[in-house]
TrEMBL record, chains A, B, C, D, E, F, G, H:
One of its GO terms (biological process) is lipid metabolic process. It comes from Terrimicrobium sacchariphilum. Residues 11-202 form the SGNH hydrolase-type esterase domain. SUPFAM superfamilies: SGNH hydrolase. InterPro entries: Ester_Hydrolysis_Enzymes (IPR051532), Lipase_GDSL_AS (IPR008265), SGNH_hydro (IPR013830), SGNH_hydro_sf (IPR036514). GO terms for molecular function: phosphatidylcholine lysophospholipase activity. Pfam families: Lipase_GDSL_2 (PF13472). This is LysophospholiPASe L1.
Length: 218, 218, 218, 218, 218, 218, 218, 218
């Protein structure tokens, strides 16, 4: 596992990261759902069960519906002020989705150029202050590679891959995790809207994240 | 993994198994929480993520507050009628707990003799009809081995161990899973009441269950 | 318009027909939503606005989640007892969907042979008692014709087309209505789950139904 | 259809326009009811179903209980700031109604002189900035032309007709739409309070609006 | 006042009589609203304030939505079993109303012949057992005497007048009470739906009822 | 009736006046309970039923729990700004009550000297601006004249009587109204707490108020 | 303390005994309020704090609104079936109260003769089966001894005193406990309705009960 | 009893003191739960029942979740502004607990040095202004004296004992009260989380508090 003990790990993103977390506080053993019910909670649980002695502190800062522009607006309070040792970013789903579900309202979407430049400016001011960085690709649980929204989502994934390379970050390929799952499973069994997975899909994300970080299961 | 593909796996027990499941139906990808939020949901997710092609069907039949006497009362509909291939039983916590939190009401507790005989009668009529059996020890997240309730819980654990041996069952030592966790963690960080764990404790249970069944993480 | 004045028209089906109707009573001018908020309400409104003097009586008997097996179970009370002049049936979506979103629970799905035989037995006992019959194809708002669930849905549509032919029914091709809409619109803008459309999709269904019945807009 | 493609159409008014819309946002395909459940939603649905390729954007800015004085107070944010291509105004029902249901509180009503001058001032500052303008008459679903409130409502309708003429606007005669419906239908079957119609009455309004704009049903 | 002291007075009817009463019990001084908030509560209050020493017992048995057919169905338990000294009946509004607001569902209305015969059969079996009888006309708060629903309501009022005459009952002309009020007040200020009055209209009914019974205000 | 037509009548006081009114607005015919459910609503209803042509406008400004000190704090907005023609004040119950139910918290009560001086200062600044003034005595529905709280309440009643005399006001003796009612009725049948009457007690208050103002019942 | 250790003590009565208990189960340490919030909970707490080693089991069977007739109807299940060692009865408040707060409904009250005979029949069939019996007088927190309801309540208290004497029961004079409290406190500070005390009044009852049974505070 | 009559007694602390109090006001006889449901309410009730003539005024200022740092932040408004005659402080449970249940978030705990210095500074500025002071030890209902959290809690108890000595305060040893109770009772029967006791545990605290102050039960 690449992340050293006693690290504070902040994960920021959209509803996939949020997963219904209670924004009023961090999670506690008695259930205040500050971790949400998604991949962040699963990553934390794996870290605490397999490596309780390493004392990793996990903080969820996902917010449903957010795109990279929304992240920029809360970057100071939700990332920099927390002084994380490691930072994980998973953004882009809503930037693309709004281009397809409400195409008549382009002001709600973020197009590729703005996506990349905004994302880059966040990395510029943050990279020097964190020990480690994790960037996750956005995804669309759509096995049809010629679907226009899948094509567009893959463009954003390529931008994330490029940024991960330029900013010395660990890349988590969330799209690949779902593509693998779709080999045996119809998207309908993972997420009715092809975006918000259930417990199984979130564990696939957590596994991809942990294994990208070098986590070993024993 | 000992359980062959296409198996129907029923897990029965008390609130630890139940974990807030919606009794009105099995879980679906779109979120009806038939799996609950505990170790059963985590076992299912691990099976679907690591082995989607094996098509395991997991069914939660835990009910909060139940003891072995309550299990016997719903055994026909909740176990035999479902015709499981594999059956997992985790019962005993409430049988013991009621002896300590409401000692003036002995009719709410199940004492060792009745516990063993009722448990045995359930196994007698069920073992021939299932391909595999899993018995989990009850537990008390109390590192003080001389606590009277811990002593009593260990007695019940010994009964389960004996029955597992006699009825050719895989034993899942849930108490041991928590004892290991308590080496690095105070019980207060696992479960305020030392009985109902949060997400971390449930993953420890799921891990113990899976590894007892020979599950490998790759 | 093929349907003569003073006709009682019953529309039965699943959640598409139901559309949130209040099953406790028929709709009234003051808002008890017995019509639901879907294509049935729109058909009724068009009939009352364009032809108020014809006094058509529209009755919604859709029920969310139902497949053809569920329809058979309530056929006596929800169809025969109402003595409709015209009957419209729209069923099959759930029969197919369950094969893909919960594939491990085949008992929840209805496979083609049972679908056709059950559907046929309902038509056998009903056709002599109604003046007119309307059969609507099930649909999947999926423009990728090689998607396994779309392929399967088209099979059920073919069964409905055959039955409409054999039982002298007006066919409403709901799948075709959505295919036309998808020429200009991504499925995400019609229905997040590709099954339950919003107001726009329901008006497309109502239009298809009315025009199949020979309704003219002036 | 007079309105060219890619137009942004804002409809402002009182509860008839509002129709229960969620003011927190525009409508989406997945149901946030920004369109409300009235004639605006129906106009939008007709535009999207008959002419999906024209990409009309419809925005509802009705607010329950409002009179022309209330409209003036929110004109900047709810009309001018939105920079509509076409603007549709339907106001006057409450201006009149309050004169009859709470006659002891004249400060809640808007009398004809103020109604016309306020309305005119809104048109003065807005007409140069919009490509097209639609003015709808207020209405009272009361077939008795000698009823005092009907007489008064007709006065306001005449003011709207005059203004439509002076400001080059399309007139939608909502009162006439209901008068036609009342030829075959008692007001009790349209709206218990003779003001707020159900689904049928709203479709009559949508039809009147669309046909005034030259919409053809093909 | 015609009614002697210590009388038990039962008032039965529809929503006008019901007026939101809590059917689970009679009213008490501490507020369980068994009297409802309408004319029955006001009659009771007048009797208790002006004549506390006479100890009249008032019982409300109105039920919203009921017509004379519904009254017949609950006559035994709600009238005969209570053994009233005096009985007051106010029924007919819904019998008529349903002919106009849901004309396509004639089974929900009660037409004149059935209205009179059902009403008569109730009086036949009840008159011998009560000391006094009060019959109230149904009403429609519609000053336009040529409105079709007003014409129909007056027919029913005439039936009640005839029955009152034949069965030695005190007639309360509720329609006349509202006609008087409408001389100075538009119906909109009495009841938005012209059926369910507010506090003022209910006091007009209570006054008409009391004065018909010879109540004097000092 | 002393009050001339077209008068605006404001009634201010504590919970007896308030009676559950909705402070967000005046009452309307369609039920927004701005009048509350007490003597104010009954006074208004009597005025509208007996004298609809006089167009009295009644405004309730009672607030639960208030004493004369609280009235002074909201006097500008709730009395002077409304520019009433006639003003009715009913205050003092809480000023006394708090001396007996929470005697350990004297800061919550208003003792006689402060009561009189505060009351007088309100009258001083208001009397010149109103055409008529009504002062109501506070009351305690306690027939035992030697009860300490009754004795104290009578002291406050005497202060009100003196002020009414000095400021040319109509006195409404609410205490006397209840004393009369108690001749035939135990306090338990009027108000469980001997303060907050039900419908009957409020009508007794309304009658006392109206008759003090010279209202005739015909 | 007269009651020997390991005794099961059942307390039955009306709302004073009930005190908001949750009838679905006995109280537990984690708060299910089976004891209610009144004198029963306080008696239990005193027994557990002063004498934890005596293991008294306290069971609340009070039900709000009940009179002695209601007790008789549930005597078998709520008393005899529980096989109490000691039984405490506190009934009579509602038997009297209904004679004063709803005097027009005598069927809701229980008059002295029926009260005594019903009470006696319960004692007859129960006395032989219990080791100890406690009878509590009903009470009215009314210091005016000439109040008609107080006079009547004292009659019922005398009946209880007589029965306690005849059936070898410990008498708890609840009326005397409140009379003592009223020497320093106005009834308004104990209970607004002079029946349902707050925490202070309930502790006065618990103290009276315990001291009558010979409980010593050290 | 050491506290003289007419004293105002303020009790401040955490959830043990708070016990669900309604912070919007002090308790009243009619039930506004300003006292909460814990030891403060019981202390007050004992004082009012045994010594009603002494007129003690008890004020609860506990707030759930607070540690000594939180107390300091509200000291001015919740203590000094109230000008208590006697002040009772019970703080420290959360200061310790957070070190064990969320050890990864040290900023939520208060360590011994800060605990003592903050506590001392509060006493410094308060002692001269109060006539009497009561300091209660924090506690952990854990009979295992070698449990790490019990050891730590005892350290804090020792600090409180030292401060009580230095500032001339009455010490209430809450830990000792629970240790005594645990001689006969398992912690599970007192408090599931070993922190928040039920009614029995709170009475043990009230008894300890009262007896430390020299209260005699007569």
């Amino acid at each position: 596992m690449q992340i050293p003990e006693n690290s504070k790990i902040v994960l920021i993103g959209d509803s996939i990261t949020d997963a219904g977390r209670d924004p009023s506080g961090e999670s506690t053993p008695w259930g205040a759902p500050g971790f949400g019910n998604g991949y962040v909670a699963l990553i934390n649980a794996c870290l605490q069960v397999w490596h309780p002695e390493r004392r990793y502190r996990v903080i969820n800062r996902g917010t449903s519906g957010h795109n990279v522009r929304d992240l920029a607006a809360r970057w100071q309070t939700d990332v920099l002020d927390l002084k994380p040792d490691w930072l994980s970013i998973a953004i882009g789903v809503n930037d693309v989705w709004r281009q397809f579900d409400i195409p008549l309202r382009p002001e709600n979407a973020v197009f590729p150029e703005e996506y990349e430049s905004t994302y880059r400016s966040l990395l510029e001011k943050t990279r020097p202050h964190v020990k480690g960085l994790v960037l996750a690709t956005p995804f669309f649980i759509e096995p049809n590679h010629s679907d226009p929204m899948r094509i567009r989502m893959d463009e954003y994934g390529a931008i994330v891959r490029k940024l991960a390379n330029q900013y010395d970050a660990v890349l988590v390929d969330m799209q690949a995790a779902f593509d693998r799952l779709c080999e045996h499973t119809h998207p309908m069994a993972i997420a009715w809207d092809r975006i918000h997975p259930g417990h199984v899909g979130h564990l696939a994300l957590a596994r991809a994240w942990l294994e990208a970080l070098g986590f070993t299961w024993r």
